[in-house]
Amino acid sequence: MAPHPAEAGDRPGRVELTGLTWRPHGRRDPVLRDIDLAIPPGQRVLLVGPSGSGKSTLLRAIAGLLETADSGELTGTALIDGVAPGERAGSVGLVLQEPGAGVVAATVGRDVAFGLENIGLPREEMPARVAAALSAVELTMPQDTPTHALSGGETQRLALAGALALSPAVLLLDEPTAMLDPDNAAAVRAVVDEVSGARDLTTVVVEHVLGPWVPFADRLLVLSAEGSIVADGDPQGVLAEHGPALAAAGIWVPGVPSPTPMALPDGLFPTLVAGTAPIDSTPLTIRRRVRTVRGEVRGRVAARTPALALPAGTVHALVGPSGAGKSSALLAHAGLLEDALGADERVTVTDLAGRAVDLPTEGPHPLGVAWVPQWSSSTIVARTVIDECLTTSRAAGVPDAVARPRAEALLEAVGLTRLAGSDPRHLSGGEQRRLALVAAVVHHPRLLLLDEPTVGQDRLTWAAVVGIVDALTASGTAVEAATHDATFIARADGVTRLVPPPRKPEATAPRLPLAARCGPLALLAASALAIPAGVAAGTIARSVLVLGLVAALAVLALWAPRRGSAPGAPAPSGRFRGFALRLVPGLIGALSVGWSSWLLGGRDVVVAVEAFLRVLIIVAPSALLIPFVDPDELGDHAGQRLHLPARPVVATSAALQRITTFGGIWAEISRARRVRGLSGGRGPRALLRTTGAITVGMLIRSLHAAAALAVAMDARGFATAQRRTWAGTAPWRRADSILVGLALLVVAVAVLAPR
């Protein structure tokens, strides 16, 4: 291969790997084997290989992040410009395969600025860099938009913006356009081309589909299924010499026709009753709740869909740009939009006899419907792959004698037979997507709803996924899929194109209530001052007086006058209702303490009431004020005003901003369990069992998310930042002084009021 022109001189961006081998803990064979690789500055490398070949692992090796969240045996060396990766903060930009796992801030602007803070960029230079990065990836929403309100495609572009803002010497992109529609994907490729050329970046792109990226690349690097380099050179030369072999190995080689869908064994799915319409809907208007970082909840239209009739035995594709509401439409058709603010909808699902089945918003879901979400890790409920496949069929009453052979045949088709006894949470992203499909269809659903079913699949696994869809439709199952896959769309019997609903700008910014205008330190201080107030209150009379004062202050904090009105902004009644709901756990705790005090205090009612009131005084201010704490502002104030160490402060802030996503994660796991027949009924015991299962699922998912978050943060210079700056200021406002003064007044009343 001819030397790249960038080899001349001492320009940054030289990558060198020598004898690099990586064997993760608990795995017998290495993922990467004896990788020797030299990439000169400014070169553009397209890295390809079959599913599971170690492409994402190689990117982490170049970034020096293999051991950030995983343990294993690493040999060999990796160097960037002669030093270990990570020693120079910001020199490498990495966009992960699931970029949503790498969101580190509560708002769009602060998330992009995170890496700039780590490299010590002066605050006054950050706004221009952030705006330029967002513009480059065509994210046009306000910078204070909550990150959890973005669609999957928008989140992917946000991750790319965060990497580009760093102006790195080496840019590593793990399937950067996989979740994007063709127009946005072309725009992102153009951005990467322009930025890497203008800044002379060394760029390594991982993709399954080579065609669109071949004109971009100077070099094509191919990994085998065993994690070794098997081809390396000029893209056209490598394709000319190895094209047929690469296609046979599962790589999407340009010019090679799409693979023929895999033929499954005859009779795997028996014929269903034909001639009915599993979906029959009028036009839908679907709304989403969006919680802002200042304690307010607003609604926006997530999708508008035309009327849709989906006959049995057909495939219907939902297409459109990222953020158009395709996933929301699938949820509506599955009867899983219990968190919508409202939907003008009529959706009918029929049973095997053609009778209409209601799609409930709560409780058990009809097992004739199956749903495979975009992020398939939410559907995992079992401890082994084979049990995961059989869970829904067992809930549906399908005998194992029927379901197990079908599950084993499907696992064989998607290449997961060797993993039948493994924990499904340890599978790769592509393997989990294939497993989710298998687990969803073993019981032979009447209606199958798929969200991006072919993302991240190579030619061989794509053929298996589409082969399963073909076998199901041949048996009478109706399939609806949200997808950007042009080949899948071309095979569909019908196509519905969605367009993103317009985002209406707020006519007038609302004047926030007192609590929302206070900084995090004042909010936390006022909450903490409730502890001495509750301890000092003592008698019933004094406690009632203090609680009355707390109630008056709550009215003042929540019912502050507002300047005009904003579409979707909550009315005062909504804020008070939210406060009341947040107070319920504290009220239960206070009742529990009062009951215990009554039992242990000689059944003295006065002692019990005093204990109850004290606890209520302590917890009420927290229920009122803590929801208004902005995680990003908390980090700003703790680091700049309290001068706490930046690393634990920022890590805590990043973790706290994830709390806003817990409701969505809980809902997603709940939906997955309902649609798989695991709701468990309505009794107290069933409720506890379901709550426990969802809690465990959230815990496991949170641990995996924490590992991915650590990689994302360190990829943007967090681990090695020597001098950190802050994008946000940490002012002490007049509202802060008022709030703390009022909290001190409550303490004074508790101490000095007559008994």
Could you explain how this protein is built, in words?
- This protein has 755 residues and is an alpha/beta fold.
- Helix content is 43%, strand content 14%.
- The chain contains 23 helices and 20 strands.
- The strands form five sheets. The chain has a six-stranded mixed beta sheet, with helices on both faces. Strands 17-18-19-14-20 form a five-stranded parallel beta sheet, with helices on both faces. It has a four-stranded antiparallel beta sheet with strand order 13-10-15-16, with no helix packed on it.
- A hairpin with a 5-residue loop joins β15 and β16.
Number of strands: 20
Whole-number mean pLDDT: 83
Query: In whole angstroms, how far apart are the ends?
Result: 90 Å
Number of helices: 23
> Given the C-alpha coordinates, what overall shape results?
globular
What is the C-alpha radius of gyration, as a whole number of Å? 28 Å
- Class derived from helix and strand content: alpha/beta
What's the arrangement of strands in the largest beta sheet?
5-6-7-3-8-9
**Which regions contain 5 or more consecutive residues with pLDDT less than 50?**
1-9, 563-570
